[in-house]
Amino acid sequence: MNVITTFNTKRREKQIKHERSLLKELSIQLLSKSVQKYFGGIRMQGGVFLQQGLEEGCYDVAIEAYLLGAQFSRFAGLQEEKRQIQARCEKEMKHLIDTLFNFWLYWGKIGEEIVFSDSLHISCEGFIEYWWNEGFTKADKRRKMRLH
Predict the structure, then answer these.
(1) Which residues touch 140 (CB under 8 Å, ≥6 apart)?
(2) What's the angle, vertex CA 90, arms to CA 78 and CA 21, rounded to 5?
(3) To pair with 111 at 20 to 30 A between CA atoms, which of 9, 25, 28, 50?
């Protein structure tokens, strides 16, 4: 008897294996430093548990952006420019930026939300772009070294 597997199952297994190998290179310290860099100046009310929850939420979105950049790095092998590749996933990046922004607005309990909303949105954009670029760069290096 043969085991019947579908193409989608095999593709998903390969994708999971690739993502795991990329995530091994990611550390909590890097994530923590980037959260402090982009969101460290925002004052929050609520205490330590809320701050940890916000930081962990940022980690989740950063990992998603990292994996998105890694996924789209395959187009670098086709000699496309980074700008063009980033334009391909503009919709997904906008979704991640909006998700992070709304997460901060909901849980951050920022005193004057109207004043901080523009600077917060800019911080969210920078954070997502930073992690997208990190994922893109790491996956491109792995592809060039044929570690994928």
Answers:
(1) 73, 76
(2) 60
(3) 28
Q: Which two tokens stand for residue 140?
A: 């491109």
* Per-residue model confidence as pLDDT tens digits over 54-99: 889 999 999 999 999 999 888 877 777 888 888 889 999 999 999 9
Q: What angle do CA 42, 44, 46 make, to 5 degrees?
A: 165
Q: Are the C-beta atoms of 72 and 89 separated by less than 8 Å?
A: yes
Of 135, 126, 128, nearest to 67 (Cα)? 135
75 secondary structure, DSSP code: G
Pinpoint the alpha helices (H) of the chain.
7-23, 28-39, 48-72, 82-88, 90-107, 113-144
Q: From residue 100, how far is each of 59, 63, 124, 137 by CA, in Å? A: 10, 12, 6, 22
- Show Cβ contacts of residue 104 under 8 Å, excluding neighbours closer than 6 positions: 39, 42, 54, 110, 120, 124
Q: What is the pTM of this model?
A: 0.84
